[in-house]
Design a protein that fits this description.
TIM Barrel; Urease, subunit C, domain 1; nine-stranded mixed β-sheet; 16 helices; 17 strands
């Protein structure tokens, strides 16, 4: 048995209960028919109340727009109405708008994350010394119930919003049945974050068993039809195992193409798990709607294939450092950017990276330097603007949303962050791009707008009862650990009550 990255499922340190559960899961018949899950559908939201899309005038902010025509400005006003950015300028006077004083803040577009396995968000602390990501994941994949998926994804979405991530690609690579997909989508309906839901297989699913396209059709009709609860915030995609792992890859691709869905594929962090872009181009599959993640084993032929087809890459900075057995994080990043590939940033999983795009930008910038005496010596260094683009507009392009979000541009939806420039870790303010990449953290985010709704204000989430989200996630994590057993067995059998 292997996971979706092509790595053998480890057995060390795992309770017998989890091993039997995982083995049983791999042997089950195809997933339930759509009719058996059709009743699940959208349900009543669990938010504290969906914030209204108001009419706002963000006044006097220092601006990093990520729009070449607008650029960075020392002082700027932004008008937002009905979820859309109306205008950007100086000394705007707008009758009837609620004024947001941003005179001591930096305004920037919301971050766009392109690869996050949200079903395991609550498992961030399942790892321990000698029992890291793959061991913890394989020990728990079969220990989740649908409600655990709901609480995990909602936890991830609310944390994303609080950290300024206004768009996320939920790479759902453990869809254990229709009720699990519904649970994740219920969370998206409640989460209020712009997203792609990338429907995939069950972790450890036999390579000869395709993903459940009948259920994808049910999900599309139920969740993305005329009565969709998402209000246009969430769109549907798929994630596939690569051609090296999947004998029927061509069959799955034919089904995806028939449905015209955007695709995400792990392209590998080591030579034994590599998916090569040049091969995908020869198959006729590579294009702007084909997102490849990691890409550490890429060679020049792969990079040129990406350039020709405008296919994007999702780079999981922390994960590449920890799991990149092929090496080449530093050189590969420099080469892809120098070639002109659309490189975006992502987290992979909470047990591999903090949900902190500022830190991802910082690490990418610090590592994006040519090394003297190596084959990278003549490549250009990564600059602040590039990593900000990787975290915003490049992510939007990677998800096909660059006409919607990724920059502060009139006509786009209002996904905007206001960052306190007078906080002790930021002041005194100097170069705006340097400040965002090197100094800012999620703790400095005063205000977050997603689709013109204020979800965070004065450092506090106003769209969700955060205590309740955390409490429910903690209880779900306790239940998952109890079912998994072994090293994960909770020391206290009583459910947490905080």
């Amino acid at each position: 048995m292997v996971d979706d990255c092509g790595r053998p499922l480890p057995a060390y340190g795992v309770g017998r209960r989890a091993l039997f559960a995982a083995a049983g899961a791999a042997a089950v018949a195809p997933l339930a028919a759509p009719a058996q899950a059709a009743a699940a559908g959208p349900r009543k939201p669990h938010t504290t109340g969906r914030p209204a899309r108001g009419h706002f005038l963000i006044k006097g902010a220092a601006l990093v727009s990520v729009d070449p025509a607008i650029g960075n400005q020392a002082v700027a006003d932004i008008e937002v109405r009905d979820g859309r950015i109306i205008q950007v300028g100086r000394d705007l006077r707008i009758r009837g708008a609620q004024v947001i004083d941003a005179s001591r803040m930096i305004a920037m577009p919301g971050f766009v994350e392109t690869h996050y396995h949200m079903w395991s968000a609550l498992g961030r602390n399942f790892v321990s010394t000698g029992f890291e990501y793959f061991a913890a994941k394989s020990a728990t994949v079969a220990a989740y119930q649908p409600d655990d998926f709901y609480h995990s994804v909602l936890l991830g979405l609310v944390e994303c919003a609080s950290a300024g991530i206004t768009t996320v690609n939920n790479w759902a690579h453990n869809v254990r049945g229709p009720e699990y997909a519904d649970a994740e989508l219920h969370a998206h309906a409640d989460g209020l974050v712009r997203a792609r839901y990338s429907y995939g297989h069950r972790d450890g699913q036999p390579a000869t068993q395709p993903i459940d396209f009948a259920d994808i059709d049910r999900v599309r009709a139920t969740w993305f039809g005329p009565k969709s609860p998402f209000g246009g915030l969430v769109h549907l995609g798929v994630n596939l195992r690569g051609p090296g792992q999947l004998p029927n890859f061509l069959v799955e691709m034919a089904e995806v193409k028939k449905r015209r869905l955007p695709i995400s594929v792990h392209s590998g962090q080591g030579p034994t798990t590599a998916v090569h872009a040049a091969d995908l181009e020869r198959m006729g599959f590579l294009g702007p709607d084909f997102l490849l993640c990691h890409a550490l084993p890429f060679d020049e032929a792969d990079r040129q294939a990406m350039v020709r087809t405008k296919a994007p890459v999702s780079f999981s900075v922390h994960s590449e450092l920890r799991l990149g057995t092929a090496g080449g994080f530093h050189g590969q990043l420099l080469r892809m950017l120098a070639a002109g590939i659309t490189v975006s940033l992502s987290f992979d999983a909470t047990s591999l990276a903090p949900i902190n795009m500022f830190e991802s930008m910082n690490v990418a910038w610090n590592l994006g330097i040519p090394y003297l005496g190596t084959d990278t010596a003549d490549l250009p260094a990564v600059v602040f603007r590039q990593v900000i683009e990787m975290a915003t507009i490049n992510g939007a392009r990677a998800l096909g949303l660059d006409a919607t979000t990724g920059s502060i541009t009139p006509g786009k939806r209002a996904d905007i962050l206001l960052i306190r420039a007078d906080d002790i870790n930021i002041a005194p303010l100097g170069d705006l791009e340097s400040t965002l990449v090197r100094s800012a953290t999620p703790a400095n985010i005063d205000t977050v707008l997603i689709d013109g709704r204020i979800v965070k204000r004065n450092l506090e989430m106003v769209s969700h009862d955060v205590d309740k989200v955390v409490r429910n996630a903690a209880r779900a994590a306790h239940a998952v650990r109890t079912r998994a057993g072994g090293i994960l067995t909770p020391t206290n059998p009583t459910l947490p009550t905080f």
